[in-house]
Amino acid sequence: MFLIRPRAWRHCLIALLLILPLTLNAADEAGLSLEEIVGLNNVSSAVMSPSGEAVAYLLNVPRDLYVDEDGSAWRQLHVVSTQGESRPYFSGEVRVSAVAWSADGNDLFFVGKRDPSAEFSDIFRMPLGGGEAAVAYEAKSAIRSIAPSPDGETLAFLAPEPDPKESKSLAKKGFRANVYEESNPFVHVWLLDLESGEAAKQDIKGSASSLRWAPDGRHYAVALAPTPLIDDEYMSRDIFVVETATAKIRNQMGLVGKFGSFLFSPDGSQIAWIGGEDIHDPAEGRLYTASAQGGERVELLPDYPGHVTDFYWSDSSRISWMAGRGVWTETGTVAIDEPEAAGQAPASGPVLRSIDAHPGQSVAAAVADSPEHPQEVYLLRDGAAPQRLTHSNPILEERQLARQEVVTYSARDGMELEMLVVHPFKEKRRGNPLVLVIHGGPEAHYSNGWNSAYSRPAQYWAAQGYIVALPNYRGSTGRGVEFSKHGQHAYAEGEFNDIVDAKQYLVEAGLADGDRTGITGGSYGGYASMWAASALTEHFQASVAFVGISNQLSKFGTTDIPKEMYNVHARSWPWEDWNWMLERSPIYYAGQVETPLLIMHGDSDPRVHPSQSLEMYRNVKVRTDTPVRLVYYPGEGHGNARTAARYDYALRLTRWMDHFLVQGNDELPEWKIDHAARLQNGDN
Predict the structure, then answer these.
(1) What Å distances lie between residue 526 and 502, 594, 659, CA to CA?
(2) Which residues span the domain enclosing 61?
(3) pLDDT (tens digit, 9 = 90+) per residue, 60-89?
(4) Helices (H) and strands (E) in the chain, counts
(5) What tens digit of pLDDT does each residue of 658-672 get?
(6) Which residues are registered as beta bridge partners of 80?
(7) pTM of the entire structure?
(8) What secondary structure does DSSP assign to 510-533, as a single string?
């Protein structure tokens, strides 16, 4: 069994590093430092055992700065009892990507690596009672997910076909041509015989993304897209019911638009899923059911003013569900033959991110967070408050945390909006410097949970005297389909004016200094940050844009989601109105930028091409004298995954805000971060 490395020395190292000038403002000793925020552990998934007595969960453990080799967080497998007793099953320097219980609950199956340098993650089988994990299948390609069969004899997994043996030899000879999009591998369904260890590919047309067994094991349902392109996975998937023995498709459910998870009912007669209302619904969030034989769908929570995010079958006639509603989450149970509207969302408690249980169980496992801690494992019981089972960050008990408040404000057109406000440790009479953190999507929203991360270190900023606001502007999820569509064919209109109105609310309340206001965000939030620095430059004194959109015209031609952009965002093609697209692009206003702008981007981003950041940088650089800087992160995609890249990003983000908002500088700060001194200290 792999054990977690002792981490006490790490806190000593962090203490030494804090002596160095990490940013231009020293961190408050009582508050969280940037290093501590970047280094926090968090639970990414929790799966209830068939007995209802234990929860298997995956724990993300970031690498140690200046000590570990470059890479993303380790992901470890742990099991916690419903009494809160947790122990590691596959931990240390490992990466586990998926976990599932055997049907009888005696074994855990998971996809993971013992050797971080291995090309692929294998499928392991491990007894619940402990012992060494055994390889059940040695992977020949990247395994996406696993699903043990109800009879315990088979395990289904999703993976591409292995590359031909000659591929590596040819690559060494220089034959590495990539035929854009066409050479993307299809993901197939494979059935692994657990006794023989042999896997056979199912002959099914399409690219698979998720699979669920029927209770009798004679059928399974699989989500298939016509191609492996992410745009088709977003917009063109459907659920197909397949005969296990023959791989013949029995029927197709006929879904349209986005959808998420799906499950057979315990008796196998129904399939329930979370889907979109129509092809133009920005996010899956409606709960549906239909006969597993096919037929008309039934919406179980019609006109629900939130977004359903997870569910499980309580029995063959009832579904327990979880949803985001405003900045909170709520749960409920609905009978499939009695659709109903949900009640009022609770204004307290942890924010639930996922739930999992088996039919007939009186408890459910949940992943949840709160303003006091990142994601942990919780236990849900009917009629009882959620019970926290894991405590993955003891350091939080030693740190002061800022107060987080839910604020309702009115936009200039009267629309009522919500935002989260993280208050500074020390409030000033005439207002503190303000940073607005804008979420991406825009089909997403902030909840009243843990809101500190490398790209939005709210707790660190609060210790430094900043007030931090996280608005849910129009077009966000959590308030039903109609609200989420407010931003469609309305790029940079009411949605970004809502952000200015959030600032004005805090200024008029005497909480924020309107002359020391910064803005940051990633993806669509990066778009908002570029727009704020250009079209709305008079309102902001510093901006940091991450993987953001600068040119709606060229974005269409370089993104991997053009159909999604058309259907749920623009609602028109660029050639239908070139000027409309151009005039909603920050580069159009780059000549008037007066807000110092820091632009950061992963150089391997397929969603928002890195050239979007280059276009904005070049336009501002040539057309103005305003401070502007572009930083690329090698090998990173649509957001930074590696711990070192996350930390470097956090340092540059906070330094930019300090430099212009607190110190009132007019020139660019030093471009270097003195990582060398920290590396030497870490080696010692």
Answers:
(1) 17, 17, 20
(2) 41-136+353-392
(3) 999 999 999 999 999 999 999 999 999 999
(4) 14, 37
(5) 999 999 999 999 999
(6) 55, 86
(7) 0.93
(8) TSEEEEEEEEEEETHHHHHHHHHH
